[in-house]
Amino acid sequence: MTPTQIILDCDPGHDDAIALLLALASPELDLLGVTTVSGNQTLEKTTANALRVLEFVGREDVPVAAGADRPLVRERFVASYVHGETGLDGPALPPPTGSPVEAHAVSFLAETLLAAPRPVTLIPTGPLTNVSLLLSLHPDAAARIDHIVLMGGAIAEGNVTPAAEFNIWADPEAAQRVFSSGLDVTMIGLDVTHQALLTPAHAERLRRAGRVGTLVGELFDFYHRFHHETYGFPGSPVHDAVAVAHVARPGLVETSDRAVVVDRGGELSRGRTYVDLWRRTDWPVNAHVGTGIDADAFLELLLERISSFDA
Ligand code: BDR
Ligand code: CA
Q1: Mind giving me the DSSP string for 218-280?
Q2: What is the CA(14)–ligand 2 centre distance, in A?
Q3: Which atom of ligand 1 lies closest to the CA of 193?
Q4: Which residue has the CA at smallest separation from atom 10 of ligand 1?
Q5: How many domains does the chain have?
Q6: Are 145 and 183 in contact (CB under 8 A)?
Q7: For tag attachment on the chain, is the N or C end more exposed, with fewer CB atoms within 10 Å?
Q8: What is the pLDDT of residues 11-51, one digit of tens each?
């Protein structure tokens, strides 16, 4: 089987880091590069974190390109209350020894897409600033995208405000640009990711697997404190890893083809993804919207793949 070529556009971030590890450990996927964006932390920190994770598993061969250091029009807001001051608080990961490539993430995306022998799947797991810039600046390269499978939005809940999910809220103008692009977009939102929780028992199993499992266990310990205190969840959603898992194993997330419009208005509704679930409008259908997940299959896949680093 020919692996699906992917690029991960991310803002690590605990769940981005786990998504990156899952991508590296999945033989169904060929990771062409990692692009970073300001989101969970500043661009400088999310870029360093991508490098730190790749170096930890000896995958310095995967290029990292740094992108937008702020949203298109909104003020930058980082999620240190979830991910800590470094963006990856918890484990004692050393600072990176390597550097990102010289090219800006948007140029890197364009060059990589144009050079790839077949269309590429883009997996954005942070604010959509880089992707939106790519669509505007390099439409020829964007046309080489096979699918966009993004983590963001929600049908019916919010995590940064009652109305909105963080990635979409952080840069709603960019998100609307992506949803209205005409490309094949899959939205993995909170309704889905909140159904598949990584629990302390899973983390314990990972720790027993070895060095990389222990890293993920330590990431979990920090990240889970927030989800337990805020939501009372017995485990933590590994949002971004669900998007990667859905590309590695299509069908893992159940989807419905629906219209999605992003609210670019004021504070109350900013970043809300209006999903026309019951087809109440004539808005054009523009996304495969995640509605359900085989949580056990996802968690088993995640544990198996992370453990395979230490096998
Ligand atoms: C999303 O926001 C970030 O905090 C996570 O990394 C994830 O991409 C969840 O709302
Ligand atoms: Ca993220």
Answers
A1: HHHHHHHHHHHHHH--SSEE-HHHHHHHHHHSTTSEEEEEE-EEE--SSTTTTT-EEE-TT--
A2: 8
A3: 9
A4: 166
A5: 1
A6: yes
A7: N
A8: 999 999 999 999 999 999 999 999 999 999 999 999 999 99
Q: How much is the pLDDT for 311? A: 87
Structure tokens at 124: 């954005």
Peptide bond into 87 cis (omega under 30): no
Element (H, E) at 304: helix 295-308
Catalytic residues: 239
pLDDT tens digits for 59-105? 999 999 999 999 999 999 998 888 999 999 999 999 999 999 999 99
- Cα of 281 vs centre of ligand 2, distance in Å, is 31
Beta bridge partners of 307: none
Q: pTM (2 decimals)? A: 0.98
Single-letter residue type at 84: G
Pocket of ligand 1 (CB under 6 A): 13, 15-16, 40, 79, 82, 125-126, 151, 159, 165-167, 239-240
The CATH number linked to 167 is: 3.90.245.10
For residue 39, how far is its CA from the centre of ligand 1 (angstroms)? Answer: 8
- Number of H-type helices and E-type strands within the chain: 13, 12
CB-based contact 261:179 (threshold 8 Å):
yes
Domain span at 218: 4-310
